[in-house]
Write a structure and sequence with these properties.
By secondary structure, this protein is an alpha/beta fold. The protein is built from 16 helices and 16 strands. The structure holds adenosine monophosphate (AMP) and zinc ion.
């Protein structure tokens, strides 16, 4: 079945065709590791993880590369301000390398909690400085650069299709609609490829280059590393929508001016996690990390479930209420799945199973329509005729290859409410004290609440009674 993806380049859904048959070369913009990542960031990575799972479900072999930005991302997008990692290092009295290592580890811890598969290649900017220098040299050779007192810049007026991804009004910008913060820049859209180390301040991270000691501009790392691992033209490149007008626009300029070839075939961008309608971000202070989620006793997988209930291209407003509701729904889902696993009964109808499988594939292949795919799973759970619990269980585990909710590893103890757990414990104590009357009373009480309790040789077994 064909896969359709919404390509930001051209702003329409297109049938996905890989460059190499059966293979996908995918690059995802990774995190800048100067602070804890927040839920907004993780939407970007759960989105990529879902995309990879869908491609693999469609039998593609995916080579997934993600960078770690540990140098060059400045506090100001217009190539001014301080390096975010160095700034944090100064503030915390640590080295820039320590800061980057610490937040990288924290990032992957959270990724694991969200059951996001680690990309095949995770590449740090600081490990690829020579690749970046070589790329800047190619861009320079082709006549797209100029030097100012603080670095080597890309001359965007040399490219006649600069800004094509974002549909930027380049002429408007050039006519000076925006205040140019760097007077040495020839055009407001020009950007730094290589920045010189400042004379008055010693940087911790700096390297020699043909142009002088310094460090790379933020955009060059992704172009250099993606082309190093995936070749000059990639199948898919992802990131959040904030990357469209600057970061990805500049990546295209760098790659295409160096190679003369198209850089990326499909650009995919996730929309924002918002809080009260505003982008969740560090600078606004309206963010929550995965640690905040756990500190409130919320299962991290509830966040993954919440993401799946919305299309990646729509804004998703985060509230504690919504994540708690997602947790509750996920618990109910787990209970249903557990019952199905234990039940194994009914008459089978292969035609119906096939229909469900096809419908599921049609949804996920339609630009990752996970909300409809999730609804389909609930429809299947409620389906009363012509499909047995074993088939339902198998189908749900198949769907979970995309959802990644670990529905094959449910522990009933984890999904019982505190109240139920307390009653079970009380019953065990009553039995130990040979107070069988009280034990039976509790058994009846639990039954009324929808739980059946069985005493087996291996201990007690609890299951939800289908009502
Ligand atoms: P950064 O570390 O800022 O480069 O961001 C890493 C990734 O997270 C990028 O793809 C961003 O576009 C994405 N991102 C950042 N904030 C949000 C948000 N509030 N919602 C969704 N994606 C975000
Ligand atoms: Zn990037």
């Amino acid at each position: 079945m064909k896969i359709e993806l919404f390509n930001t380049m051209g702003r329409k859904k297109q049938e996905f065709k890989s460059i190499m048959p059966g293979e996908v070369r995918l690059y995802a913009c990774g995190p800048t590791v100067y602070d804890y990542a927040h839920i907004g960031h993780f939407r970007a990575y759960v989105f990529v993880d879902t995309l990879v799972k869908i491609l693999e479900y469609n039998k593609f072999k995916v080579k997934h590369v993600m960078n770690i930005t540990d140098v060059g991302h400045l506090t100001d997008d217009a190539d001014q301000g301080e390096d975010k990692v160095e700034k944090k290092a100064r503030k915390e009295g640590k080295s820039a390398w320590e800061i980057a290592d610490y937040y990288t580890e924290d990032f992957f811890d959270a990724m694991e909690k969200l059951n996001v598969k680690t990309p095949d290649i995770v590449c740090k900017a600081t490990d690829h400085i020579q690749d970046m220098i070589n790329l800047v040299k190619d861009i320079e050779k082709n006549g797209y650069t100029y030097e100012t007192s603080d670095g080597i810049y890309f001359d965007t007026s040399q490219l006649n299709d600069y800004g094509k991804l974002a549909g930027l009004d380049i002429e408007g910008l050039r006519e000076g609609a925006r205040v140019n913060v760097n007077p040495e820049k020839k055009h407001p859209t020009d950007f730094a490829l290589w920045k010189f180390s400042p004379n008055n301040k010693k940087r911790q991270m700096e390297w020699d280059s043909p142009w002088g000691k310094g460090f790379p501009g933020w955009h060059i790392e992704c172009t250099a590393m993606s082309m190093r691992y995936l070749g000059e033209t990639l199948d898919i490149h992802t990131g959040g929508i904030d990357h469209i007008p600057v970061h990805h626009t500049n990546e295209i300029a760098q790659a295409e001016s160096a190679t003369g070839k198209r850089y990326v075939n499909y650009w995919l961008h996730n929309n924002f996690i918002t809080v009260n309608g505003e982008k969740m971000s560090k600078s606004k202070g309206n963010f929550h990390t995965m640690k905040d989620i756990e500190n409130r006793g919320i299962d991290p997988m509830a966040v993954r479930y919440l993401f799946l209930t919305a299309n990646y291209r729509t804004q998703l407003n985060f509230t504690w209420k919504s994540v708690k509701a997602a947790e509750k729904t996920l618990d109910t889902l787990r209970e249903h799945v557990k019952i199905l696993q234990e039940e194994k009964k009914g008459g089978t109808n292969l035609e119906k199973v096939r229909k469900y499988k096809n419908q599921f594939l049609a949804y996920i292949n339609d630009d990752l329509n996970t909300p409809e795919a999730i609804s389909l799973m609930w429809k299947l759970i409620r389906e009363e005729k012509g499909i047995n619990s074993e088939e339902k269980y198998k189908l749900i585990l198949e769907f979970d290859k995309i959802f990644g909710l670990n529905l094959d590893k449910i522990e009933i103890g984890k999904i019982l409410s505190i109240e139920i757990k307390k009653l079970i414990k009380e019953r065990q104590t009553a039995r130990k004290n040979k107070n069988y009357e009280r034990a039976d009373e509790i058994r009846d009480e639990l039954k009324k609440m929808g739980y059946e309790i069985q005493d087996t040789k291996k201990g007690i077994k609890v299951r939800r009674i289908n009502s």
